[in-house]
Amino acid sequence: MAQKPSIPKGTRDFGAIEMARRNYIFNTIREVYSLYGFRQIETPAMENLSTLMGKYGEEGDKLLFKILNSGDFRGKVTPEEFTEKSAAALASAFCEKGLRYDLTVPFARYVVQHREELQMPFKRYQIQPVWRADRPQKGRYREFYQCDADIVGSDSLLNEVELMQIVDKVFTRFGIRVAIKINNRKILSGIAEVLGAADKIVDITVAIDKLDKIGTEKVNEELRTAGLSEEAVEKLQPILNLSGTNTEKLEVMRSVLAESEIGLKGIEEVAFVMNLLEGASLNNVLELDLTLARGLNYYTGCIFEVKALDVEIGSITGGGRYDNLTGIFGLPGLSGVGISFGADRIYDVLTRLDLYPSATQSGARLLFLNFGEQEAAHCLRLAVATRRAGIATEVYPDAVKMKKQMSYANTLQVPFVALVGASEMEAQRISLKDMTTGEQTSLTLEEVIEKVKG
Fold it and tell me: CA spacing 20 to 30 A to 295: which of 113, 222, 338, 357?
């Protein structure tokens, strides 16, 4: 017996209903991006590894899917080297390309490669899949879509304000209650500075970014393992557990970071953004979260993360300011800021909360039953008119028993069924059945169109 086919762990198939729901997500995000003047681009699924490596930190590099070189990929490696080299060294020799890990680094490459064609500031959005060789688990996939918006070529913090308004508007349209969390990498650098561990900023941010996942004790263990002194770890605890209003938190941190110029700069940036957003009538909670670190090493200013309030799941949106990401591709000093919606997690949240509009159901709204060759030909002509009127219409292809055709309509939740036999053809009428109420009426074509369109 042939083995049943399967798909790789961490990936998913999507049927018709799922795709209708996903398109609802993508279209909602796309509409809001367009409202704010962003324009769409796309980049290839695979990039040169030289583009990707070293941009996501050591942990991120390990999660890159690498693609074997075409042809004899072992040709440049001797049998001795094949035996002696480490897996990482062999991967470097065998692979020149990899699947993109996110959309931001490929976007930075795009900006540098096409800089002569772009008008700055450049506002782009991009909705495409990304891949990470992560351990699959609930809410975490190896293949998933990101929906990014970025602004490059402007240092203004008004861009951060605008992106948070976009986040608020998107989740308001979805009907998902969220907390929009904000922090600043300069604040984190200031914290490392006052702890006497400025050289450990990466270790500190990577560790505290895991606070929600592994808890305080394990974060402290990671910090000690990274070389932080016991005194520094103890000094960090009140900051990790800081509570109060956003204003109160900022005042406390101004005192804590009084001797750190970069830390105070971060506080002023966050205060500017939050003050403007307070006057923007956001529908969702905006919270200063000093444990928010965003593990990606290229962030340099404000950082953002969004958590659903009514579903236990990881971050569903994130982003931040990256002042010199394009510098690694030969274009230094170009500032950027962006956000990324995690479409797959948003899908899960909408599903669990049952928030999809009924209109997201895909497929036909009207099905013509098939009573024979002449009737089917007549129905095809009628379907031309209903489709021209914007009604998704099917004509059942086979003249089988009516019970089977009605079962098809029920299973696919087609709201209206049209019955056109010899008598209806002669009278130029259509018997229209409302599948929700069971009511059946004799109507003209124009009346059917009006009825089905609602």
Answer: 113
